[in-house]
Amino acid sequence: MKPKAIYYLIIMLLITGMMACGGDDVDDTEPAETKTPTTTTSQPTEPTGVVERNIDFEAEEQAIRDLYGVYATAHGDKDVDTLGDVWLKKGSDDVFTAWTFWAGTFERNNGWQDVNDAWEGIFRLRAGAVTVDITYIAIDARGKEAVLRGAYNWGNQRGDLISALEKDGQDWKIRAIDYTGGNNGKQVKDLNEPAYTFGEIEEE
Length: 204
What we know:
Helix 2 (57-76) packs antiparallel against helix 3. The chain has helices at residues 2-24, 57-76, 80-86, 112-125, and strands at 96-102, 105-110, 130-139, 145-154, 157-168, 171-178, 196-198. The protein is 31% helix and 27% strand. The chain has 4 helices and 7 strands; from the N terminus they run αααββαβββββ. It has 204 residues and is of the alpha+beta class. Residues 23-27 and 30-52 have low confidence and may be disordered. The protein is rod-shaped.
Protein backbone atom coordinates (compact mmCIF):
# COMPACT_ATOMS: atom_id res chain seq x y z
CA MET A 1 0.00 0.00 0.00
CA LYS A 2 2.70 2.43 0.84
CA PRO A 3 4.48 2.28 -2.55
CA LYS A 4 1.13 2.88 -4.29
CA ALA A 5 0.41 5.89 -2.10
CA ILE A 6 3.78 7.36 -2.98
CA TYR A 7 3.16 6.66 -6.66
CA TYR A 8 -0.23 8.40 -6.59
CA LEU A 9 1.25 11.34 -4.69
CA ILE A 10 3.93 11.79 -7.35
CA ILE A 11 1.35 11.66 -10.13
CA MET A 12 -0.83 14.20 -8.31
CA LEU A 13 2.14 16.54 -7.84
CA LEU A 14 3.07 16.25 -11.51
CA ILE A 15 -0.49 17.02 -12.63
CA THR A 16 -0.76 19.94 -10.22
CA GLY A 17 2.58 21.31 -11.39
CA MET A 18 1.57 21.05 -15.05
CA MET A 19 -1.69 22.83 -14.39
CA ALA A 20 0.10 25.55 -12.50
CA CYS A 21 2.58 26.11 -15.33
CA GLY A 22 -0.17 26.13 -17.92
CA GLY A 23 -2.09 28.79 -15.96
CA ASP A 24 0.90 31.14 -16.11
CA ASP A 25 1.11 30.88 -19.89
CA VAL A 26 -1.43 33.64 -20.61
CA ASP A 27 -2.07 34.69 -24.19
CA ASP A 28 -1.43 38.42 -24.11
CA THR A 29 -2.65 38.97 -27.62
CA GLU A 30 -5.69 41.23 -27.81
CA PRO A 31 -8.35 41.25 -30.46
CA ALA A 32 -7.65 43.85 -33.12
CA GLU A 33 -10.68 45.89 -32.16
CA THR A 34 -9.54 46.29 -28.53
CA LYS A 35 -6.02 47.52 -29.35
CA THR A 36 -5.29 51.23 -29.42
CA PRO A 37 -3.23 51.91 -32.51
CA THR A 38 -0.30 54.25 -32.09
CA THR A 39 -0.04 56.53 -35.11
CA THR A 40 2.29 59.42 -35.85
CA THR A 41 1.01 61.97 -38.30
CA SER A 42 3.11 64.86 -39.53
CA GLN A 43 1.24 67.84 -40.93
CA PRO A 44 3.10 70.29 -43.21
CA THR A 45 3.80 73.54 -41.41
CA GLU A 46 1.98 76.43 -42.96
CA PRO A 47 3.77 79.80 -42.91
CA THR A 48 2.15 82.29 -40.58
CA GLY A 49 1.70 85.94 -41.38
CA VAL A 50 2.11 87.73 -44.69
CA VAL A 51 5.38 87.48 -46.53
CA GLU A 52 6.37 91.01 -47.47
CA ARG A 53 8.08 91.57 -50.76
CA ASN A 54 11.48 93.16 -50.61
CA ILE A 55 11.47 96.82 -51.55
CA ASP A 56 14.63 98.72 -52.40
CA PHE A 57 13.55 102.04 -50.88
CA GLU A 58 16.72 103.84 -51.91
CA ALA A 59 16.05 102.86 -55.52
CA GLU A 60 12.44 104.06 -55.15
CA GLU A 61 13.70 107.37 -53.77
CA GLN A 62 16.02 107.77 -56.74
CA ALA A 63 13.16 106.97 -59.14
CA ILE A 64 11.11 109.76 -57.53
CA ARG A 65 14.03 112.17 -57.86
CA ASP A 66 14.43 111.21 -61.52
CA LEU A 67 10.72 111.80 -62.08
CA TYR A 68 11.00 115.28 -60.62
CA GLY A 69 13.97 115.93 -62.87
CA VAL A 70 11.72 115.23 -65.87
CA TYR A 71 8.99 117.35 -64.26
CA ALA A 72 11.31 120.35 -63.91
CA THR A 73 12.52 120.06 -67.50
CA ALA A 74 8.96 119.78 -68.84
CA HIS A 75 7.83 122.89 -67.00
CA GLY A 76 10.91 124.87 -67.99
CA ASP A 77 10.39 123.90 -71.63
CA LYS A 78 6.62 124.47 -71.43
CA ASP A 79 6.27 120.90 -72.65
CA VAL A 80 2.68 119.86 -71.98
CA ASP A 81 3.18 116.51 -73.72
CA THR A 82 5.94 115.49 -71.28
CA LEU A 83 3.68 116.48 -68.40
CA GLY A 84 1.48 113.63 -69.56
CA ASP A 85 4.38 111.29 -68.87
CA VAL A 86 4.95 112.43 -65.29
CA TRP A 87 1.38 113.03 -64.10
CA LEU A 88 -1.15 110.35 -63.13
CA LYS A 89 -3.84 110.49 -65.80
CA LYS A 90 -7.01 110.12 -63.77
CA GLY A 91 -10.14 112.22 -63.70
CA SER A 92 -10.67 111.94 -59.94
CA ASP A 93 -10.43 114.90 -57.55
CA ASP A 94 -7.39 113.46 -55.79
CA VAL A 95 -5.40 114.34 -58.95
CA PHE A 96 -4.91 118.10 -58.73
CA THR A 97 -2.73 121.18 -58.67
CA ALA A 98 -3.16 123.89 -56.06
CA TRP A 99 -1.45 127.25 -56.55
CA THR A 100 -1.63 131.02 -56.38
CA PHE A 101 -0.08 131.71 -59.78
CA TRP A 102 -3.05 133.71 -61.04
CA ALA A 103 -2.43 137.12 -59.44
CA GLY A 104 -1.95 135.54 -56.03
CA THR A 105 -5.43 134.00 -55.96
CA PHE A 106 -5.71 130.44 -54.65
CA GLU A 107 -6.91 127.96 -57.23
CA ARG A 108 -7.24 124.19 -57.29
CA ASN A 109 -7.59 122.24 -60.54
CA ASN A 110 -9.06 118.76 -60.09
CA GLY A 111 -8.64 115.84 -62.48
CA TRP A 112 -5.90 115.31 -65.04
CA GLN A 113 -7.66 117.17 -67.88
CA ASP A 114 -8.16 120.31 -65.75
CA VAL A 115 -4.56 120.07 -64.55
CA ASN A 116 -3.33 119.86 -68.14
CA ASP A 117 -5.52 122.76 -69.30
CA ALA A 118 -4.40 124.90 -66.38
CA TRP A 119 -0.73 124.33 -67.23
CA GLU A 120 -1.33 125.35 -70.82
CA GLY A 121 -2.82 128.60 -69.55
CA ILE A 122 0.01 129.25 -67.07
CA PHE A 123 2.65 128.55 -69.73
CA ARG A 124 1.27 131.48 -71.74
CA LEU A 125 1.99 133.80 -68.81
CA ARG A 126 5.13 132.46 -67.21
CA ALA A 127 8.43 131.08 -68.45
CA GLY A 128 11.86 130.14 -67.22
CA ALA A 129 13.79 127.17 -65.96
CA VAL A 130 12.35 125.24 -63.03
CA THR A 131 14.38 123.85 -60.16
CA VAL A 132 13.12 121.85 -57.19
CA ASP A 133 15.30 121.44 -54.12
CA ILE A 134 13.90 118.24 -52.58
CA THR A 135 14.02 118.35 -48.78
CA TYR A 136 11.82 115.41 -47.81
CA ILE A 137 10.56 112.14 -49.31
CA ALA A 138 8.37 109.57 -47.53
CA ILE A 139 7.37 106.20 -48.99
CA ASP A 140 4.75 103.79 -47.63
CA ALA A 141 5.43 100.15 -46.72
CA ARG A 142 4.01 98.83 -50.01
CA GLY A 143 6.17 101.13 -52.12
CA LYS A 144 2.98 102.41 -53.78
CA GLU A 145 2.51 105.92 -52.36
CA ALA A 146 4.90 108.73 -51.53
CA VAL A 147 4.95 112.34 -50.38
CA LEU A 148 7.60 114.83 -51.44
CA ARG A 149 8.41 118.28 -50.09
CA GLY A 150 10.77 120.82 -51.55
CA ALA A 151 11.47 124.41 -52.51
CA TYR A 152 10.77 125.36 -56.12
CA ASN A 153 12.12 128.22 -58.20
CA TRP A 154 10.42 129.09 -61.47
CA GLY A 155 11.32 132.41 -62.99
CA ASN A 156 10.05 134.99 -60.52
CA GLN A 157 7.95 132.39 -58.68
CA ARG A 158 9.47 130.88 -55.55
CA GLY A 159 7.92 128.86 -52.77
CA ASP A 160 7.51 125.51 -51.09
CA LEU A 161 5.65 122.63 -52.63
CA ILE A 162 4.12 119.46 -51.25
CA SER A 163 3.47 116.64 -53.70
CA ALA A 164 1.71 113.29 -53.57
CA LEU A 165 3.00 110.51 -55.80
CA GLU A 166 1.54 107.14 -56.71
CA LYS A 167 2.77 104.05 -58.50
CA ASP A 168 1.16 103.50 -61.88
CA GLY A 169 2.24 99.96 -62.68
CA GLN A 170 6.00 100.02 -62.13
CA ASP A 171 6.42 103.79 -62.57
CA TRP A 172 6.01 106.66 -60.16
CA LYS A 173 3.61 109.41 -61.24
CA ILE A 174 2.74 112.77 -59.72
CA ARG A 175 -0.79 112.66 -58.38
CA ALA A 176 -1.00 116.11 -56.81
CA ILE A 177 1.09 119.22 -56.12
CA ASP A 178 0.32 122.04 -53.72
CA TYR A 179 2.56 124.95 -54.68
CA THR A 180 1.48 127.00 -51.66
CA GLY A 181 3.34 124.81 -49.17
CA GLY A 182 0.11 124.11 -47.31
CA ASN A 183 -0.62 127.80 -46.68
CA ASN A 184 -4.16 127.42 -48.04
CA GLY A 185 -5.15 124.36 -46.06
CA LYS A 186 -3.73 120.86 -46.11
CA GLN A 187 -4.24 119.98 -49.75
CA VAL A 188 -1.75 117.07 -49.69
CA LYS A 189 -1.78 114.84 -46.63
CA ASP A 190 1.41 113.38 -45.21
CA LEU A 191 1.75 109.61 -44.85
CA ASN A 192 0.76 108.45 -41.38
CA GLU A 193 3.40 105.76 -40.93
CA PRO A 194 5.93 105.86 -43.76
CA ALA A 195 8.26 102.89 -44.02
CA TYR A 196 11.06 105.03 -45.44
CA THR A 197 11.91 108.71 -45.21
CA PHE A 198 14.58 111.04 -46.50
CA GLY A 199 14.93 114.29 -44.58
CA GLU A 200 12.52 115.66 -41.99
CA ILE A 201 9.39 117.73 -42.06
CA GLU A 202 10.11 121.22 -40.80
CA GLU A 203 7.69 122.29 -38.12
CA GLU A 204 5.13 124.68 -39.53
